[in-house]
Design a protein that fits this description.
- It is a single chain.
- The protein is mainly α and 114 residues long.
- It has one domain.
- The chain has six helices and no strands.
- α2 crosses α3, α2 packs parallel to α4 and α4 runs antiparallel to α5.
- The termini are close together.
Length: 114
């Protein structure tokens, strides 16, 4: 799985703004260390986030993307990780559980993970 595959997948499966928010929330969960996906799936989700982070979301915006950039540059900073955790929990309260489950089901069913 590589960036080119993810880019093609996104072109073939354009994400709605709420699904961009879902991808962003998953990226926050990866960064706060609470994501239970397999290592390869985390890599694919990070690639998906990178592909769609410039797309408009419904609720999550530039402040969250800036935080993700900071967190990626500061892997071992516990203070940033805790702040990411707080923002992730807030993002997950804004995105309904059925929407997030639907997003995860869609990306699996549509072959994002190969």
């Amino acid at each position: 799985m590589n960036a080119a595959h993810v880019q093609r997948w996104v072109q073939e499966h354009p994400l709605s703004p709420i699904h961009v928010d879902c991808a962003t929330a998953v990226m926050l969960k990866i960064l706060d260390g609470k994501c239970k996906m397999h290592a390869e799936e985390k890599i694919v989700m990070a690639l998906l986030y990178d592909e769609v982070k410039s797309y408009p979301g419904e609720m999550l915006g530039a402040d969250i993307h800036a935080l993700i950039t900071t967190a990626r540059d500061s892997h071992e900073d516990d203070e940033i990780r805790e702040f990411v955790y707080e923002k992730r929990v807030l993002a997950e309260t804004m995105i309904s559980r059925p929407v997030m489950k639907g997003f995860k089901g869609m990306i699996r069913a549509e072959g994002l993970f190969g």
